[in-house]
Design brief:
The complex is a heterodimer of chains A (150) and B (136).
Chain A (H helix, E strand, L loop, with lengths): L5 H4 L2 H23 L3 H8 L3 H8 L8 H10 L9 H29 L7 H12 L3 H15 L1
Chain B lengths: L11 E7 L2 E6 L3 H5 L3 H15 L9 E2 L4 E4 L2 E4 L1 E5 L2 E10 L2 E10 L9 H19 L1
Parallel strand pairs in B: 2-8
Antiparallel strand pairs in B: 1-2, 3-6, 4-5, 6-7, 7-8
Classes of the chains: A mainly alpha (150), B alpha+beta (136).
Chain lengths: 150, 136
């Protein structure tokens, strides 16, 4: 299919307006799930109904990031931001951290002459690594290394 | 099957399409749609994408019940995409095996944020005429 609006869909205007549309649909999805209408959302947020109406209007005047966070919090949820680039970076960090943790584990075992046996603790650590490849994991490994060296 | 299969025969033009459906417009209304501001056109196209994906739409984006049009055995439920006080009237129909929202009227009246009864009545007539043509 040749999309007659291909140029428009690639424009900054479309990026902006589609984000507006998606954000409104995002809130509507949560509201429908929770059985809450716009009047009830205004009450839960402690703002006027007019303010909530503005959030859902075409112009979306005064719809700030803070107001979005407040709306989602009032719905008992939390906003998570992502994008394709952000997801790629997160996945790459996950892979790198997992490799680094594995390499350090092997290095410690070789230097200390330990036999690498899976333990409950190691299994728990591995689980933590697979779920949350954060700097905290690396920090824990560094602490482990320093203890081993001592 | 191509995305615009079955549209030409009924004077329709494809506006948006994905695996779960498509949105088409009466080709006679295409220039009116194209003349809308880019902001409005962008929001409409994205709302159409979301309608195709059966995502939640706000009452300010889509009204799924603008009334029914009846003639003989035909009974059509009209809906409207809404943005910037502009309404795109249409109805959902299985056309050539594809779930299709067919836009058959456009109300660009910016004076009020309410359905213009005259335009709505005209939309219902157009919907009935088109369905008759499709099913004949």
């Amino acid at each position: 299919m040749t999309d007659r609006y291909q140029a428009l869909r690639a424009s900054p205007t479309f990026a902006e307006e589609s984000f507006v549309t998606d954000t409104q649909s995002f809130l509507q999805t949560i509201m429908e799930e929770k059985g809450i209408n716009q009047t009830q959302l205004a009450e839960a947020m402690g703002v006027s109904k007019a303010r909530v109406s503005q959030m859902f209007s075409s112009e979306v005047k005064n719809f700030t990031i803070r107001l979005l966070a407040r709306a989602v919090h009032a719905l008992g949820d939390r906003v998570e931001i992502t994008s394709s680039t952000y997801r790629e970076v997160e996945q790459r960090r996950h892979r790198e951290t997992t490799r680094e943790v594995a390499a350090r584990g092997e290095h410690i075992a070789m230097c200390s002459g330990w036999e690498m046996k899976p333990s409950r603790r190691a299994a728990a650590d591995a689980e933590q690594v697979s779920q949350s490849p954060t700097r905290a994991v690396l920090s824990a490994m560094r602490k482990f290394e320093s203890q081993a060296a001592a | 099957m191509s995305d615009d299969a079955g549209l030409d025969a009924y004077g329709l033009t494809l506006l948006a399409s994905a695996a779960r459906g498509r949105v088409a417009i009466d080709s006679a209304l295409l220039s009116d749609f194209d003349q809308l501001e880019e902001k409005a056109k962008s929001q409409f196209l994205r709302i159409m994408d979301l309608w195709i994906e059966a995502r939640a739409l706000t009452p300010q984006q889509f009204n799924g019940n603008e009334g029914r049009a009846k003639r003989g055995s035909a009974n059509i439920l009209l809906g409207a995409f809404k943005r910037f006080k502009i309404r795109l009237y249409g109805f959902s129909h299985n056309l050539s095996g594809r779930r299709t929202f067919i836009i058959i009227d456009l109300d660009p009246a910016k004076k009020q944020d309410k359905a213009d009864p005259k335009v709505l009545k005209r939309a219902k007539e157009r919907a009935l005429d088109l369905v008759e043509k499709i099913e004949s």
